[in-house]
Design a protein that fits this description.
Elements: E1 6-9, E2 13-19, H1 22-38, H2 43-64, E3 73-81, E4 84-91, H3 110-117, E5 120-124, E6 132-138
Antiparallel strand pairs: 1-2, 2-3, 3-4, 4-6, 5-6
Helix pairs in contact: 1-2, 2-3
């Protein structure tokens, strides 16, 4: 499967998609953090946004497409509204989604970190497959 990279930006909203590989994490995280900065995020708020977003993206890169080569897409959508940054990280992977696995290459702390860093986190397993993680953060003073 070929995944084309792309970013669509409209005011205080971004939509970006890339292949779910480790090399995609930094640029996607940077786009979200830049949006937080534009919303007036403090240094602590930027750090929280960066860490939670990294965890969500890392989960996609490690778990979403274990059996697929090359891996499928990861999408990030983020927007600012009334002092709140909303970030959605989603994939189209198959399998167990965000469930614990004994064979997991990670430490199993990603969801816990996302919950601690964000003001709210929601995980959805859409009927069509994949996982969607929605996080919200208060930004600004």
């Amino acid at each position: 499967m070929l995944v084309t990279q792309g970013t669509r930006r409209n005011g205080h909203r971004i939509r970006e998609h890339r292949q779910a590989v480790s090399g995609s994490i930094a640029p996607l995280r940077a786009a979200v953090v830049q949006l937080a900065v534009e919303g007036g995020a403090t240094e602590d708020q930027r750090d929280r946004v960066a860490l939670a977003t990294s965890e969500a993206l890392t989960n996609c890169a490690l778990h979403a497409y274990r059996a697929l080569e090359p891996p499928g897409p990861v999408a990030v959508e983020a927007w600012l509204q009334n002092g709140t940054l909303t970030v959605i990280v989603s994939d189209e992977g198959e399998g167990e989604g965000m469930l614990p696995r004994i064979t997991s290459p990670g430490l199993g702390m990603g969801l816990s970190i996302m919950a601690r860093m964000s003001d709210r986190v929601e995980v959805d397993h859409p009927d069509g497959g994949g996982v969607s993680v929605r996080m919200t953060f208060a930004v600004g003073a």
